[in-house]
Amino acid sequence: MDLTLENLLAWKGIAVAIWFAGFFLLERLFPAAPYPDGRGKAAPKRIFARLAISAQRVIRNLGLWLLNTGLSPLVVLPLSVWAASHALDWRPQWWAGLPGLALDLVILDFLIYWWHRANHELPFLWRFHEVHHLDGFLDSSSALRFHFGEVLLSATARAGVIILLGFPVSSILVFEVLVLLASIFHHSNLRLPSGLETALSRLFITPSIHWVHHHKVRRDTDSNYGTIFSFWDPLFGSRSSKVRSPNMPIGVEREDERPYLTLLLRPFRLRG
Ligand SMILES: [Zn+2]
């Protein structure tokens, strides 16, 4: 790994950590939906009580994330770097610099839309992605909650895309940072001024759009697949007409959240 890549990775870590800490704090000061206390009642208003109540699921989400942070330098990153060094060299000259990066970001967001949709429509992929959706509430920690199997499958699919479309490592890294920032934002429970949220939602996926994707009703779970840009869902007929409400149940229809170890083993069960 060269120094430039190491520097970029360090900056990526710092930017994501600051962004996450900011949203984690703000969504507890200005929540859009009441925090559950585990018995279906609204949480007390005091911030420390809220923190204690949501601690169990936050720890569970961070526990899943911890496994993935271990996999990143061992598997995910080397696989992406290897793929970039074996990428097909067919790109024209004009597809470089900032315009090239902007085009790469739109193409990668288009591809991640279809990858996310495949994770819902193909039963094998859903086994892993379901772990993300079993979270019974949403906040910025939900953005880090993915089964390690899904992370490995995504890394393999991404390597194929990098080789075929010849993406440079820089585009992949910038895209990964933007995906993390966007994901922390649209999973967050931060109450935004409605005018600001409406304006942002014209171009970007906002919490009001993505929370509907986590609605405990399968029809809505299988909608609103976008990650960064909000125009793919209307374009491909997957935008839900459901409007987010503060007490909307979150999770997977007819399923409940599971303990940490059960979540890790769940994709490998014999029967669906
Ligand atoms: Zn999903």
Give me the count of strands: 0
Structural class category: mainly alpha
- Hey, roughly how much beta strand do the residues contain? under 5%
Average pLDDT value?
91
Topology order in helix (H) and strand (E) letters: HHHHHHHHHHH
Amino- and carboxy-terminal Cα gap: 41 Å
Helix content: 55-70%
Task: Tell me the number of structural domains.
Answer: 1
Can you list the ligands bound to this structure? zinc ion
Contiguous low-pLDDT stretches (5 residues minimum) are none
What's the shape?
Answer: globular
Salient structural properties:
globular; 62% helix; single chain; 272 residues; mainly alpha
Helix/strand layout:
Blueprint: H1 3-29, H2 47-85, H3 97-121, H4 123-133, H5 148-165, H6 169-187, H7 194-201, H8 207-213, H9 218-221, H10 232-235, H11 260-265
Helix pairs in contact: 1-6, 2-5, 3-4, 3-6
